[in-house]
## 1
Amino acid sequence: MSACEDGVVARAVAATDTDEATAAETELYRRFAPRVRLFGLKHLPDRSSADDLAQQVMLLVITRLRAGEVREPDQIGSFVLGTSRMMVAGQRRGERRRSAIIARVELYEEAVQPTSDLALDWMRIAPCLGALRERERTILLLTYYADKSAPEIAAAIGATAGAVRVGRHRALASMRECIETRRAS
Amino acid sequence: MSSTSTPCPSFGELADYWTSDIAPADAEQIEAHVFECERCARMLAEADRLRTGIGALARAGNIQAFVTDAVLNCLARDGVRVRYYALNPGESVRCAVWSDDDVLVTRLRGNFAGVESIDAEMRLDSGEQWGHTTDIPVAAGATELVMALPAALVRTAPQTPIRLTLRASDGSQPERVLAEYTFNHEGTLDRRTNSNDRG
């Protein structure tokens, strides 16, 4: 199942005729709940809201698949994204949906183990941040800690916004390579 | 496994998603791609952990960097305990770190006119190098650099004068010295005993 196209998994969920969580549902949850959560982290105020969003969206998607309401299962990614956008818009209108964490979600989450390649150890970040050139370290701190935009950073360090973006990309590439090296050793 | 209609963005382009200056249309483009591409979804999650990790390091006082007032304001907001020193070129200061400090910040004042980038070096009285960093960015008209050190690191420093030299990294050989400062480090002080631990 894990090697299937997303559409194959979606069709397998749609074909389910049991009330119990199936392998296809778990696989769909494993694939898309993290993406919905990332979307929520961008658009919602905190991590617990993003977690809630992931659960609500995936429950709705699975319910609609099983009800035959998803016309193009091969485009399931677009459907999940559209559902995420709709729910975030709803929350912004003050219609915060508070659904209980039901047993099925717990079953999905028990079945979805984090993969080791995602386990980014913060202890690896510190030496890699320390290994950067000072300019790049400053740019990353101002971007991701002080939440400053490229033009604001440019004004603070005497550079252009374009140079800040280039420096940020270079710093991130260095950080990623450094972290991968430390993870492998 | 999935197929996508758009090429995969670079890690840096994905990480832009987490910045405050990404255009809404660009964010939507990344979202559309990530919901079709599991590999890029993993990279976007990795970029999220990287940014949250950087924030966590700062909130823990574990930053060794030249920073701006924006970073200092965030440290203040986050309850990080910061001890400040300020020096003019050629000055020396008696300094210490307290047991409950998180970060030590020094405002290094000087004339940095016409300089875009600076290298900094710290040496112990013995001549041994204690720290070195390159390419400190300098804004036009800047009259100070703000150096932040983790208090945990300073607690490991020997009780001896430490000289900090700033040099213009403009390609001149030898590098042009802009300013020198001396920290007469007197160890770690404890508020409860109001004494230092020099024994």
## 2
Amino acid sequence: MTEGIAGGDELEVERSGGFGGLTLRASVPVAALETRERAAIEQRLDRAPAPPSGPDRFVYRFRMHGREAVVQEDAVPVELQPLLDRLADSWR
Amino acid sequence: MRGCICQIVPPHVFERILRTGSPEAREAAMDTLSVDHSIRLMRAQNAALAAQPVRRAIAGPGGRGVVHRTIFDALHRNDQQATHVLRDEGQQESPDPSANQAYDALGDTYRFYWDVLTRDSIDDAGMSLLGEVHFGRRYDNAFWDGRRMMFGDGSGTMFTGFTSAIEVVGHELTHGVTQATINLLYTGQSGALNESISDVFGCLVKQYKLGQSADEATWLIGEGILGPAMHGVALRSMKAPGTAFDGDEQPATMSGYVNTTSDNGGVHTNSGIPNHAFYLAATAIGGNAWERAGRIWYHVMTLRAVPPDAQFHTFAQATVIAASALYGPGSTEAQAVADAWGQVGVLTASQMPTAASSGS
């Protein structure tokens, strides 16, 4: 698993699953997050993962400051959709 | 040790093992009981099938064997209840190529299930096939949501769309068939089996349409949908898991089983193992894969011969029992299926239920 760059001031996002089953990652500085984006992630950190949404859906994992949140595709809150849109070309 | 309590132990001994045995002995006893249960189910099912008239005879307008498709336009939104119809059953071609591809591929998939397995749609009761194209924005995915199939257009970099590959459409529709039958839990090994069953029947839909035998088929999933950022020929290879594209991490055997928390426990990764087992069985049996190997796998589904949390070995044993029930214990087909699971490291010789099923 990828470790945080320079002491964990990055939000790391992993997108796995989907028909292709590709596990892709992207990152963004925590400082660059909108307040409501950061709040939406923090609210979900360390929660028990929800059951899978269904076949071939994506699964997102957000890692921040050594903690993580796993969010199934159909449970992505509206606050985080713009962040995922910004990451659309960064998956690697 | 498993082999010795597999077949000839009386029920009261099983009960004692279940109450007081070591965890391993209990697990082995549970496996055996589930095999027993499968055999009883299979006998009942075979008797019922023998008593039934050929269902195809009642196919006709408005009856069984008649497909009904509707293709909606999701208008690039994440809308799973889109209402804008691009093409309904019997309508002329749409100006939208994705709509026609989805319409045609759903028709081919329906035709496969009806012609080959006498299954009347997803629920075997003529359920309408509902597909949405242009789902989401640059959406690199396709999925079954329990009622409809969603197809993204792809980002253009990783994927170029999902309706052009018939096996992708067959894969998604088969998730519906699995849901309606053995309803495998979408996590870990049962999730990988769920995925594998979709790949197996997705491939068979394509092979049936093209008239390809097991030897002639490519056994590739997602052929022709990779964008320029992906280097390879497809997303998965049942013939040679792990070789479809640069970065393909599918194992072909249990020695490569991937433990991960991503992708609901690697359901699209470890599906390589049961995928390869099917390929090995189908090519060892020879001829058209849908005629015997496909029928064996489908038998396990329609019999509901495995529980929703089935692990690889439980499913494997059920396929060997199904092959024995359909083609006879000791038949080429039963042996090919058992050997295939042995080659991928799922069943050891002592776990193969051929001796148990020979009493049927």
